[in-house]
Amino acid sequence: MKVLSVSSEVFPLIKTGGLADVSGALPIALQAFEVETKTLLPGYPAVLKVIRDPVVRLELPDLLGEPATVLEVQHEGLDLLILDAPAYYDRPGGPYVDPLGKDYPDNWRRFAALSLAASEIAAGLLPGWRPDLVHTHDWQAALTSVYMRYYPTPELPSVLTIHNIAFQGQFGSEIFPGLRLPAHAFATDSIEYYGTVGFLKGGLQTAHAITTVSPTYADEILTPEFGMGLEGVIASHIDNLHGIVNGIDTDVWNPATDPVVHTHYGATTLKNREENRRSIAEFFHLDNDNAPIFCVISRLTWQKGMDIVANVADEIVAMGGKLVVLGSGEAALEGALLAAAARHPGRIGVSIGYNEPMSHLMQAGCDAIIIPSRFEPCGLTQLYGLRYGCVPIVARTGGLNDTVIDANHAALAAKVATGIQFSPVTETGMLQAIRRAMHFYADRKLWTQLQKQGMKSDVSWEKSAERYAALYSSLVSKGM
Ligand code: ADP
Description:
By secondary structure, the chain is of the alpha/beta class.
């Protein structure tokens, strides 16, 4: 089966979050199920800089008013189609924001262009290759199935994956003419959303199947609390809604071979983590003692519960714990965490910024990772934690609920516990969880048991890739 995957970020070329990890790893995992994927992504400067010897595959002289070229290149096991459109993507800053962190005002056009190019490829414009199915990710690629509905595209099945329904790509109706869709596309069964243009909404209405990145999140987005206004639309497609939990790339994330981890280890050599723990203490200027090191690796936002972390930091120290934070995000939260570090030298360390190697080393050296998200479609850092023996302490929501087994009495007795879950996601809830962790940590045997059980969890892509492959097959065999 041939699949066109469309994503605004793909690891290892460009990443701002979990979406990149998924769109970079799933195509490789799908190879075992005879799914051949080409992945279309924008030609940001960071992408064009690292690829070698691309081949020009398609010229699009008027992609929503700007010229574009589709380049094809193989990169680290991925077959990439790169949309080289300098007017849209050749700028400093990130994929979505300028160097000052502000959304580009023409994001609607930049990602409509990506989607339109995808629908052209779906229609067979790429010489010698036409997909059997199109898989789009998040609002940035969601217009693909909208264009496929209204443009003269042969009927092809499409799957839309929601990685986070909080990001919907909603714009004023004045942009509608610039999308070059027929007037009747501005309708509730398509992209019209309370008088505005909704990219994700349009994708949900036009894709043949919707997936979310965990079963619990699939249930949650049917409720007003988590559906962010789209719960009604999702409910109308409930028969085509699937929750498939993310896996991780177990080659990239392997404590026995990870090149940035100083001392390699496995479940039977957990003692080797000590060296990595010392490196973490050094990097964050922590006292080198036996107190547990709790870590946070995250975007610093309200969604991720980072205000809660800042508010309980003093109490974590008072309980005898240490805390290290790696992340960037909202200025107020960065400031609150830096202030906590300043109040507790030797006990709290904060590093503001994005640091991929350090994120690996922290999983390999810290004792536990705290993930207090108010909502979490899947979450990846708890999966890395499981794989690295860094015990996850997680909010009971979304994918965190599906992937971590709470160390309650029954689970401990059955030796199946892999971490700690807490609810409600409040300061009190989190402090209770930390207290439980401190209690378990004091019992070395019990803690090692938790680590080992976590390391046994199947966090690979295999089972989930099989589910995606089965979904693709059922859509293709139905004719959609
Ligand atoms: P989200 O996509 O909502 O940000 P996920 O848990 O799904 O959350 O994925 C976050 C990804 O980004 C993980 O791979 C995590 O290790 C990584 N990450 C987050 N913040 C940082 C950081 N400051 N430095 C390095 N990696 C980070």
